Amino acid sequence: MPDLDFDGHNTVRGTHGLHAFAAKCPPQVVAHALRYYSRPGDTVLDPMVGSGTTLVQARIMGRNALGYDFDPLACLVSRVKSHPLSDGPIENAYEDIARRARQDLDALRKRKTSEAVRRRALPPEFPNRDYWFDSRVSRALALLSFHIRSLDASEAVREFMWVALSSLVLARTSVANARDIVHSRHHHWTHKEAPDVITTFQNRVGRMRKQMEEFRRLCAEADPAKVEARLGDARSLRLPDESVDLVFTSPPYTTALDYPRAHFLAIPWLQEALGISLSAYLARGEEYIGSERGRLGPKFAIDSSLLDMCLATNVLTRIGATSARQANLTQRYLLDMRKAIRVMTRVLRSGRHAVLVVCPSHVRSMNIPTHDLLVELATREGLLLKKRHLRTISARRRVMPYMRSFGRRMSTEYVLVLQKSTRR
Ligand SMILES: C[S@@+](CC[C@H](N)C(=O)[O-])C[C@H]1O[C@@H](n2cnc3c(N)ncnc32)[C@H](O)[C@@H]1O
Q1: Is residue 407 very low, low, confident or very high in pLDDT (cuts 50, 70, 90)?
Q2: Ligand 1 centre from 297 Cα, in Å?
Q3: How far is the CA of 340 from the centre of ligand 1 (A)?
Q4: 48 CA to centre of ligand 1 in angstroms
Q5: Span 104-163, pLDDT tens digits
Q6: Which of 106-115, 226-235, 333-342 has the lowest average pLDDT?
């Protein structure tokens, strides 16, 4: 069995490290799956693509790839990371944005300014804005956002700048009054001095340019491939049957990570780019697979369509004995994952593989063997388990949710290799 731990390996080559994202998959795991279960020119699907690791790696290895995510910020980040962009236009654009934003700030400071500048420096309204952002930070973010919007450049360059802006907020050291912001629950933390947002933006773009340069170089070594990131729901993708040569995905966990909550501090500044308001974005929260939100009723009963699945029934009964809500949430997760697996199976060509990277989870101190549950679901849908690798997640490298009531991070995960049977 190959070693899939990759501890000590560089997991941020090229654009892989362009933007922080919770529970990112190590590119080496994707590379392993691409190498063993696809050929150059094949089409790879990641139906829950997150920050686009699959797309970036597929592009580097000359595979066509299609990624979907329910989260518009994830889609934006995936698209920017997986499309090689030349440096000249980025350089012109970011200097322009920084210069204009600085000019506006100077004018505001000297109180010699027009109504138009005052208006563009007004930050968007959202709950607790002044708790999470110093007013000077808000003003600088509003100006950057305005000048990115009014940039005279291609859409690809503008999107690159949106990702840079988002990464000022969603970062270990954020310009927001928050720490550990890549996790779903932020810790409030006030900077000793308000950060210089425009300089941070310039430094950030400087780093991203180097990452993009390396990505361009890596892509040049492979045959050109078509890569696309789309907004979509893994439970109902409109893709033709048998049109995909490999599925690779690391699905969400049961109620462990709340992506909308993890991202909510960046969304207000990118509402136009994402085409969604903060309130609409948060309102979709309960529809994410694995969400712990939503009304589920006070009682729990096993869904009749799961009754012939021994493991699922057993696990749900155990959880239901202590919490109807948790049992309902876990059941909703399983029913959602069954829909997603059904789609994966439908679009996969016969005899080809689906590789799922899955962490066991914990609900109310109970071990939930999510990996085995997904195998049970997949088997019903016509995918057979071929290999099961266990890998250790380096706590230093990957942002994983804390295990409830255990206080430590998830530390192992399974790489499940499933094959679509040829007799369907
Ligand atoms: C564990 S992350 C994937 C991380 C990704 N492999 C990476 O390396 O960045 C799971 C993703 O599933 C997405 N997701 C949740 N529900 C979804 C749905 N119904 N359809 C598509 N994506 C969904 C989340 O938004 C999140 O980005």
Answers
A1: very low
A2: 26
A3: 11
A4: 4
A5: 999 999 887 899 999 999 999 999 999 999 999 999 999 999 999 999 999 999 999 999
A6: 106-115
For the chain, the C-alpha Rg in angstroms (whole number) is: 22
pLDDT of residue 353: 98
Contacts within 8 Å (CB) and 24+ apart, 88-91:
89/153, 89/154, 89/157, 90/157, 90/160, 90/205, 90/209, 90/212, 91/209
What CA–CA distances, in Å, run from 18 to 69, 80, 182?
Answer: 18, 9, 14
What distance in Å separates the CA atoms of residue 291 and residue 282, rounded to the nearest whole number?
A: 12
Which residue's CA is the closest to the ligand 1 atom numbered 7? 24
Model confidence at 10, pLDDT cuts 50, 70, 90, reads low
Mutate to test the pocket of ligand 1, among 12, 16, 21, 70 (most ligand atoms within 8 A of CB): 70
Q: In whole angstroms, what is the distance from residue 189 CA to residue 128 CA?
A: 14
Residues with CB under 6 Å of ligand 1 are: 21, 23-25, 47-48, 50-51, 53, 68-71, 74, 233-235, 250-252, 259, 288-289
**Averaged pLDDT of the chain:** 91
